[in-house]
Write a structure and sequence with these properties.
Blueprint (H helix, E strand, L loop, with lengths): L1 E10 L3 H12 L4 E4 L11 E4 L2 E4 L10 H10 L3 E3 L5 E5 L5 E4 L8 H19 L12 H5 L3 H8 L3 H16 L8 H10 L3 H5 L1 H4 L2 E3 L4 H11 L3 E2 L4 E7 L2 E6 L2 E10 L10 E3 L4 H8 L1 E3 L2 E8 L9 E6 L7 E4 L8 E8 H7 L4 H16 L8 E6 L12 E3 L3 H5 L10 E3 L12 H19 L1
Parallel strand pairs: 1-2, 1-12, 2-9, 6-16, 10-13, 12-21
Antiparallel strand pairs: 3-4, 5-8, 6-7, 10-11, 11-12, 14-20, 15-18, 15-19, 16-17, 17-18
Helix pairs in contact: 1-10, 1-15, 2-15, 3-6, 3-7, 5-6
Amino acid sequence: MTEITRDVVIVGAGPSGLTAATRLKAAGLTVAVLEARDRVGGRTWTDDIEGATLEIGGQWVSPDQEGLLELLEELGLETFDRYREGDSLYISKSGDLTRFTGDIFPVAPETEAELVRLIDKLDAMAAEMDPDRPWEHPQAEELDTISFEAWIAQETQDQEARDNIALFIGPAMLTKPAHAFSTLQALLMASSAGSFTNLVDSDFILDKRIVGGMQEVSKRLAATVGDDLFLAQPVRRIEHGPEGVVVHAEGVHVRAKRVVLAHAPVLYNRISFEPPLPRRQHQLHQHLSMGFVIKVHAVYDRPFWREQGLSGTVFSPYQLCHEAYDNTNYQDERGTLVAFVSDLNADGVFELSDEERKGRILDSLAAYFGPEAKNPVVYYESDWGSEEWTRGAYAASFDLGGLHRYGSDVRTPVGPIHFSCSDIAGAGYQHVDGAIRMGKLTAEQLIADLT
């Protein structure tokens, strides 16, 4: 057993924890980073699967993600544009396949009018919110006790408009059914991205990717942390008090002045705290849960859809794969599609055998792209729900009523224990940008306290 002493110990070697660690070291403080996995990156992971480089976790960069963009510049990482030339595709409830351009789906004029009206209304409501303090929204309690599905139903009788507005937040972002989260939680998702319009605009929210993959951010930060990083060290117990903490991992014990929990909130209960965390923390952590989505990677010998004048971007709330994009790697001759199967649909296909599930998913891609989509040379499913140290994707969100009730405490330190991850970010919520912003903010607080 290794026993060491540091100023700060950080639990989790994802973008948030490693950002905090590098900032603390630069300020002259000593750190130790303990990571349960045998790799860095958290929910970002770039790996080689059957000869294809796949971004198994988070990957996209948006123009408003200042925390991420600044760090990319610091680290010397380059980006490239997501391929988006040509037409997008939409499948209606009746099964009609339509090519289109722009942000609004090709629906009946009256449905389009409803979509535009609802997007404008949600933009106005999101503009009233500070994403760092959503519980202070003027209608916070009212909006937090009505599901997003019920709110949409109150707003319009147009079922296709309802289905598509729900798609943008439910399956596409929080990866939960729209009846399972509140309208306030939906507004936080929109506000954190700048507006509901930004969530609708895939050219904005999914703008660029990083050459080499998003995990490169964590790898380069980890190089700065050096020998202060300890992999395959799940933390089992934290003793804490006025004098600091003792953090017990499987092979390392760290005595420190502060500890930062830089991992998903659903894992807090994997750690025993002595003394126990306060009642408020016990309660709020039970009201946060992960969504569930399968990220599907289908690699082909070439990006055949481009030959048809298609961008690779598709949407439908009525398909198993509710969205897909051209995810071809930088300077790669092969073509890659990335598609998503979310919440209740994901539950359903995991009741099938592996081959049956693959067949159903490829059939859905073929509904958009034709029979050639059924024959990828590499096929892989990112199933973060099976990851012991993640347990879902993309991030944690509150159940009905939880955000206005507990939201103000998600970042509140408990004595020497601090919290930092994308799940509790304001701007950049549930994105790598939010993880980095939280890492910087936590480091600033600790530097002010300890230096």
